[in-house]
Write a structure and sequence with these properties.
about 50 residues, mainly alpha, 2 helices, about 50% helix, about 0% strand
Length: about 50
């Protein structure tokens, strides 16, 4: 999915979409910052599920 579509969805529905972007050349480079990824996911889950 092109990043622009995700950015538009985040803009249009901030109540539903949290988009965290990483400095990676390709989506297959998912592991560019594993510590930041883990912290982002943990924070998101705590705010929505684990409260």
């Amino acid at each position: 999915m092109p990043i622009r579509l995700s950015q538009t969805l985040r803009h249009d529905r901030p109540d539903l979409v949290a988009l965290e972007t990483f400095d990676a050349d390709h989506t297959l480079c998912w592991n560019t910052d594993p510590d930041r990824w883990h912290e982002t996911v943990t924070t998101w889950l705590k705010a929505r599920v684990l409260h």
